[in-house]
Each structure stands twice: as C-alpha cells, then as structure tokens.
Amino acid sequence: MNRGARPDQRGSAGAVLTVGIALATAGVFVVAMVLIHWFAIARQAEQAAELAALAAVGAASAGEEPCPAAGRAASRNEVAVAECVVRGEGRHVVVEVSIRVDLTPALPGVASSITRRATAATF
Q1: Cα angle 78-73-37, degrees, rounded to a multiple of 5
Q2: DSSP letters spanning 49-74
Q3: What is the pLDDT of residue 5?
Q4: 34-78 pLDDT, tens per residue?
Q5: What CA–CA distance (Å, rounded) separates 114 from 77?
C-alpha cells in the first residue's frame, strides 16, 4: 500500500492509462476506416472510368458520338466524366475518359477529390 496516497485515489493512474489506450485505439480505427473507404471510392472510380471508355468505344464503332455514351455510362455508375478525348475516327478509334470523384469524408490538408483515367480502343 502506498503510504502517501489517499484511499479514494487508488487506481486512478490505471484508469487514466486505460482511457488513454482506448482513445488511441479508437483513433487508429477511425483513421483506418476512412482510408479503407477512400480506397473503395478510388476503385469504384477506376471501374467507372473503364466502363465509360468501353461504352465510348462501342458507340464510336457503331457510328455514334463516343463522349455522350461515356457520360451515360458514367452517370449509371453515379460519377461524372471530367474529360473525354477521342483520337481517330470510324472503326479505328481511341477514347480516353477521365473521372473525378469527391473523397468523403473530406479532411483538412488532404485532397478532396481524385481523378482516374481509362483508355479503350478498337483496331
């Protein structure tokens, strides 16, 4: 028994340490959840860009306008086309589509959006 400690203060250091460890662990979990969510958003943007590029090439090879087709495919995936570049014409076309997606939750000092690009072509 500690002679200088009062009976009502016994174990208070252990309680403070336990609370500190619990808060640090919770903070690590919150940061991990945000990062995992951002990686999922980035992967969804990559897939949407690939689908939009494929839709654009399919439209171009069918004689339609490729960029509106890319926009329709992107909107079905709940994203928007940031840029659509078409090279070539007719059955020999290359389409590059850029998708910009907002990162949520937004954190100060970190980029608030990401851009993913995909290219599709016919030959």
Answers
A1: 35
A2: HHHHHHHHHHHHHTTS-HHHHHHHHH
A3: 55
A4: 999 999 999 999 999 999 999 999 998 888 999 999 999 999 998
A5: 16
Phi, psi at residue 84, to the nearest 5°?
Answer: -135, 120
C-alpha–C-alpha distance, residues 15 and 63, integer Å? 72
Cα distance between residue 83 and residue 93, in whole Å: 16
List b or e across 80-118, with b for residues whose CB sees 16 or more CB atoms inside 10 angstroms: ebbebebeeeeeebbbbbbbebebeeeeeeeeeeeebbb
Task: Convert the pLDDT of each residue in 25-37 to its tens digit.
Answer: 999 999 999 999 9
pTM reported for the whole predicted model: 0.76
